[in-house]
Every structure is written in structure tokens, then in C-alpha cells.
């Protein structure tokens, strides 16, 4: 693997996503458990991607990724949405992520990440406290409110 940690994490995510996308029918829910290694990889990779475009993410980490939506939306692509815990203040914020694997399914060819809605934390996106009833309500309400979220941060990569 490459010495670049982001590329290593992306290769790991591609392998994990490929496993669940491969045998799932188009437009079906993907079998991704809350404690899966895929969620753990997202927890580490999303801040790396965000820091590449948004320097204010330097020093921020995620302490959990929880999915309300995990859907196969194309032959090699998925949409994952839910909430994640900001490590700095242990609050949750929403995210929406689309991923497309390469033809060989060995790397992430494209992605688009939207994360955070206005709040009071260090990044201006903190929401309810992790583990609270309001945090659970935010997670389970995501499918209905995705189109209404005023996203605070976005980052994308198109195919090269």
C-alpha cells in the first residue's frame, strides 16, 4: 500500500464497500452494521477528505458514524447518510455521502460529501449531544429531511 494514509484508507474503504455492493441488487438497502469496519473507516477518512478542502477541519476527528441510509444507487455506487459524532465536543452532526468505486473496485473513483448543519461548536456545526434522545431523533429523521439540510461543508472528487 501507499505511504499516503488517505490513499490507504480509501483502498480499505473501496474493499469494504465492494463487499457489500457486489451482491446487492440495484436500489436496495446495503447490509452495513453500525459497528462495521466500513463505519470505522469512514470515521477516519471523512475528516481527511474534509481537511483537504477546509483547513478548519485540522485537528477535528470523528468518534462514530451512524447510518440511517445505506443504499446501492448504481452498479458500483452507494449513498450513505446519517450522523457522526464530532470528537471535539461529543455532539452529532448529519452527513450525506455518495461513493463510486472504480471499475476494478480497488479505489474510490468519485465521492461527494456534505456534512454539518449550522450549530454552536468549534466548526459551527455542533448538534445534540451524542447518546441523547435528540441525537437519536436526528439520526432516524435523516431520510425525510436530507433535502432540507443547510449543509455547512462539502467536498467532492470527480473521476480523473
List the main descriptive attributes of the protein structure presented here.
160 residues; alpha+beta; 5-stranded antiparallel beta sheet; globular
Task: Give your account of this protein's structure.
The protein has 160 residues and is an alpha+beta fold. β3 and β4 form a beta hairpin. α1 packs across α2.
What can be said about this structure in brief?
The chain has 160 residues and is of the alpha+beta class. The chain has helices at 5-22, 37-53, 133-145; strands spanning 62-74, 77-86, 91-101, 108-115, 153-157. It is globular and about 40 Å long.
Secondary-structure topology with pairs:
Blueprint: H1 5-22, H2 37-53, E1 62-74, E2 77-86, E3 91-101, E4 108-115, H3 133-145, E5 153-157
Antiparallel strand pairs: 1-2, 2-3, 3-4, 4-5
Helix pairs in contact: 1-2
Portion in beta strands:
25-35%
Q: List the strand order in the largest sheet.
A: 1-2-3-4-5
The largest sheet is: 5 strands, antiparallel
Order of helices and strands: HHEEEEHE
**Could you tell me how far the N terminus lies from the C terminus, measured between alpha carbons in angstroms?**
20 Å
Helical fraction equals 25-40%
What's the pLDDT, averaged over the residues? 93
- Spans of at least 5 consecutive residues whose pLDDT stays below 50 are none
Radius of gyration, Cα only, in angstroms? 15 Å
The assigned structural class equals alpha+beta
Q: What is the global morphology?
A: globular
Number of strands: 5
Number of helical stretches of at least 4 residues: 3
Amino acid at each position: 500500500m501507499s505511504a499516503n494514509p488517505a490513499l490507504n484508507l480509501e483502498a480499505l474503504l473501496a474493499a469494504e464497500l465492494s463487499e457489500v455492493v457486489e451482491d446487492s441488487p440495484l436500489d436496495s438497502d446495503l447490509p452495513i452494521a453500525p459497528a462495521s469496519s466500513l463505519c470505522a473507516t469512514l470515521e477516519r477518512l471523512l475528516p481527511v477528505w474534509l481537511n483537504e478542502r477546509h483547513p478548519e477541519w485540522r485537528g477535528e476527528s470523528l468518534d462514530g458514524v451512524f447510518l440511517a441510509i445505506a443504499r446501492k444507487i448504481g452498479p458500483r455506487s452507494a449513498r450513505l447518510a446519517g450522523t457522526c459524532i464530532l470528537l471535539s465536543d461529543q455532539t452529532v452532526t448529519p452527513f450525506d455521502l455518495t461513493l463510486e468505486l472504480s471499475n476494478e473496485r480497488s479505489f474510490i473513483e468519485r465521492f461527494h460529501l456534505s456534512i454539518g448543519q449550522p450549530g454552536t461548536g468549534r466548526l459551527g456545526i455542533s448538534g445534540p449531544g451524542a447518546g441523547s434522545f435528540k441525537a437519536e431523533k436526528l439520526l432516524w429523521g435523516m431520510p425525510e429531511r436530507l433535502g432540507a439540510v443547510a449543509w455547512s461543508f462539502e467536498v467532492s472528487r470527480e473521476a480523473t
